[in-house]
């Protein structure tokens, strides 16, 4: 499997390191530097194999290249994966600090070819610690002089994507419409809050019962994790892990719109074609979830204010409008149209335009 992943990848560099003391396995995949230094978050979780961790890093790094290009940010794509020997909550503080310290050392070896930030399993506080030893970390907490977590901006962008996609599906107001949210983490919970403010009818799930309990505070109906894909909804918002929509799910999911935060939500391109055939409006993940990247790169590279970041995040709706129009005009899936938009921005780099 590892040979298959490595030979099938079109990125620049994939580095790995194993630490005997913590039993953690570190991967940094640098996919593209065409538009600027590579950037993408650090995902820290337990994987069933190191090959799976490498594969995840490489696919997520490729998605970051598309995300940066579609959002017109001057960065390339990369991703770090730290494959933990056991689930994150079972790692003690001392071990975790050593893991972050090794990660910082790996970043320093790459010396700015790749910049990291928070992702699943890491937070702004972790970036504070990484940044002490290596400056190549975005998303430190405000207390440490950074712009804070990317999650609120990601949720704002996903909400803009939901509204634009709903309009494309003929739904002009979210009030009273059913939004099904899978995953109530940093992004999903904030999205639930935003949607509840617009009087949407929420159906949510998470594997963590405490998060479900909090969402009930927004008036949400909680269902079991394995029920959410069967719930009839106007909008399905995947905000947990990737590849939740495979061909079989695409053939039956009872919704009008799919727009969420999860990276690599479609198992492959054929799934996008099937959603298109069924008339489901799909907001390509790397367009819909770019709010966090816009926040981090906007604040830390481009020197934008929080208001400027907010205005750029809302433009995700405009970018999607362009993707939907192109998809209709050419008769291709929205996923293919968005990939073509990103590809055109990657090929334009360095040419007079
Ligand atoms: P998080 O780790 O805070 O939240 C993920 C949530 O999903 C957790 O509450 C977890 O319990 C839940 N979950 C995991 N498996 C589940 C399952 N099978 N069914 C239901 N719930 C499940 O992560 P965060 O930051 O909220 O990110 C969510 C997704 O959005 C991830 O895929 C991430 O890569 C992506 N993303 C996040 C960005 C950010 O700024 N945080 C930016 C762009 C994408
Ligand atoms: N991990 C987030 C994402 O996938 C936020 C992030 C963006 C982190 C860019 C680092 C750099 O978009």
Compounds present?
A: 1,4-dihydronicotinamide adenine dinucleotide, phenylalanine
Low-confidence stretches: none
Give the N-terminus to C-terminus distance in angstroms. Answer: 42 Å
> What percentage of amino acids are in beta strands?
15-25%
Mean pLDDT: 96
Task: Give the tally of β-strands.
Answer: 12
Rounded to the nearest angstrom, the radius of gyration is 19 Å
Percentage of residues in helical conformation: 40-55%
Coarse morphology: globular
The number of helices is 14
* SSE series: HEEEEHEHEHHEHEHEEHEHEHHHHH
Q: What class would the helix/strand composition place it in?
A: alpha/beta
Largest sheet: 6 strands, mixed
Quaternary organization: single chain
Keyphrases for this structure?
alpha/beta, six-stranded mixed sheet, 14 helices, binds 1,4-dihydronicotinamide adenine dinucleotide, binds phenylalanine
What would you note in describing this structure?
The protein is α/β, with parallel strands linked by helices and 353 residues long. Helices cover 46% and strands 15% of the residues. It is built from 14 helices and 12 strands. Strands 1, 2, 3, 4, 5 and 6 form a 6-stranded mixed β-sheet that branches. A 6-stranded parallel β-sheet has the order 9-8-7-10-11-12, sandwiched between helices. Helix 7 links the parallel strand 8 and strand 9. The longest helix is centred in the N-terminal third of the chain and has 21 residues, at 50-70. The N and C termini lie far apart (42 Å). The mean pLDDT is 96. The structure holds 1,4-dihydronicotinamide adenine dinucleotide and phenylalanine. Residues 119-120, 150-151, 154, 182-188, 205-208, 211, 225, 239-242, 261-263, 289, 292 line the site of 1,4-dihydronicotinamide adenine dinucleotide.
